[in-house]
Design a protein that fits this description.
The protein has 277 residues and is of the alpha+beta class. It contains twelve helices and seven strands. The termini are far apart. This is DNA repair protein RadC.
Length: 277
């Protein structure tokens, strides 16, 4: 075989070559695409330059999504479109609309997708590490923004912002968590800490540990917050008894328990409003 023929053979492999792209998508490069077939009419197709300039069908769709979002905000997009726009920034190749719809169907809502555990997201077909990272960054950003707004004013003077923050933080958790919001003398938020994590309907709480942590942070007041994954924010007998024990322990150390808030996806309840504190 001549040197010229040898080069031609090397540039026209019989089988396509696949390459893994680091954004979690698989792209196949078929080097036989350089061949120039003749159509049935005997005419040559468009030039290779025209073929290379052709864009995938989803290119214009992504641009339209961005424009709609920038003009109208989140309300201008359906929930799956908002998730699609998020994913396409992490996964620049491929049509991510089917993946976005699949995730919404699997987890139930856009908010549930953001709140899903990384190990659960890993089970979703077609979602790679880049996509999971984008989702969790979006969740962390929402929590950070809600927390900053809650800290702008004394907590008791910005109650709605506090509730929004608690719902973002705990509303979509699948197991119960007890969070302690520690406040200074001006009722400004010092820290938000997860004190205990339990099962779907029970979280163990130790009043002594709650007060100990408040003293370490030099907190003057505490707001208890925990979630009910069942969706019912009604306080249980256990919730009421536990709260009373913490209130009694706090009184001895001159620490105020302002409230105990129960968060669920459907809403919330306040012990203060219910007359339980």
């Amino acid at each position: 075989m001549s040197e010229t023929e040898d080069r031609k053979a090397a540039s026209r492999p019989d089988a396509p070559i696949d390459a893994q792209i680091d954004d979690g998508t698989q792209v196949f490069f078929d080097q036989t695409r350089d061949a120039v077939p003749v159509g049935q009419s005997g005419q040559l197709p468009a030039s290779p330059t025209d073929a290379k300039s052709a864009k995938p069908h989803y290119h214009g769709h992504r641009q339209r999504l961005r424009e709609r979002f920038l003009k109208g905000g989140a309300n201008a997009l359906a929930d799956y479109e908002l998730l699609e726009l998020l994913l396409c920034m992490a996964m620049p190749r491929g049509d991510v609309k089917p993946l976005a719809k699949s995730l919404i169907a699997q987890f139930g809502s856009f908010a549930n997708v953001l709140a899903a555990r990384p190990e659960d997201l890993q089970k979703a077909k077609g979602l790679g590490e880049a996509g999971i990272a984008a989702i969790k960054v979006a969740e962390a950003s929402a929590q950070y923004l809600a927390r900053e707004r809650a800290m702008e004013l004394p907590v008791l003077a910005s109650w709605e912002q506090l509730i929004d923050y608690c719902r973002v933080r705990l509303g979509h958790r699948k197991t119960e968590e007890l969070h302690l919001l520690f406040l200074d003398r001006k009722n400004r938020l010092i820290a938000d800490e997860c004190h205990q994590t339990g099962t779907v309907d029970h979280t163990p709480v130790y009043p002594r540990e709650v007060i100990k942590r408040a003293l370490e942070l030099h907190a003057s007041a505490i707001i208890l917050v925990h979630n009910h994954p069942s969706g019912d924010a009604t306080p249980s007998r256990g919730d009421i008894d536990m709260t009373r024990k913490i209130v009694e322990a706090a009184k001895a150390m001159e620490i105020i328990i302002h409230d105990h808030i129960i968060i669920s996806q459907a809403g919330y309840n306040s012990f203060k409003t219910l007359g339980l504190i």
